[in-house]
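On clarity, I found the account of how folds are encoded harder to follow than it need be. Since the whole study asks how a given chain folds, the encoding of that fold should be made plain. The format is easy to grasp once an entry is in front of the reader. For illustration, here is how one protein appears when written out as sequence plus structure tokens.
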Amino acid sequence: MTPSPFRAPRAGRLRRSFRAVCLVAAVTALSCADDGTSPDDLRFGQIGEVRIEVDAPLARGIGGLRQVITWSSDGPWRRTEGISYRGRPGDETVALSRDDPGILARSYASWIALVNDETPLKLFLGDLLNPDLNPSCLENQSRVSVFILDTQRNDSISWTRCADGLLGSLSAAAAGPDPTAGRVIQAAQLVRDFTVGATFVSAYNGSIPFGTLDRGEQSKAPLSVPRVIEDTQTWASFWAQHRGSSAAPPAVDFVNELVVVAAVGVRPEAGDSVEVRGVLEVGFGTQINLWERRPGNFCTPAPRSHAPFHIVIAPQVKHPIFFSVVDVDKVPCG
């Protein structure tokens, strides 16, 4: 890894001060709430939402992982993750908060106080932490953005800086390019801790990037089990059968790439789907993780015979290639 040219903040002292401020903020958040009705009486973003975005390069930049948390001032949050390959989306997962909205709202208010007030996490520093800076990050670093929307003022502000790690492993140690960049990263870390938790692990943890070529509920080819395609002739033949036409298939460089066809066979009810969730190189080969989404308990899906599929492109990987046991997500009704 190329050493970062960015100057790291003095993390030890910052962490100690930060912990102390967090404790004070957590204890006093309820008693220190502003009662004014004018926007000028409120901290910026006190009524609104915060969004953090982590855009991490995968496989030396030929793919990427985008992770976003959107957190409302009244408590609920939403987390999305999407993996891609050469600009082509591969898969996306979404999670919603399940904790008490009141508790989450108090945590939100504590976070807003920390980034507004005179603390080691304050973001409103003018030119010392320029919101307009659009940094060029090192090849192996993530772009981390913190966005605050203030609905009372009908205004917003954001900061983007560079750091090592994914959402679950963000590190401010080599944050840059400016000396105060660590504040942005630590603000993002705290949003993560208050919402998905400090021990969060990505649904795509360790995966090689991949992109979707096609997905749906019914192929014209008989798809009952997953398969891997690694040559042009087989790919052209499969695509013609799959689409039921002689149209040329999407371009694939089989010297450097391969195609994965995810399938689980015929399903008797509407609402089932299948997706590639990860392409993981292990010690003796490559494991491809498949997930099937089914209607949850107490749902009454309509009877409909179909065979869901997900066709993706990925870089060439170590052999042998094998598929994991299919994991199942129960999707809530409505």
About this structure: The chain has a mean pLDDT of 87. Residues 211-331 form one domain. The chain has two domains: 11-194, 211-331. The longest strand covers residues 48-58.
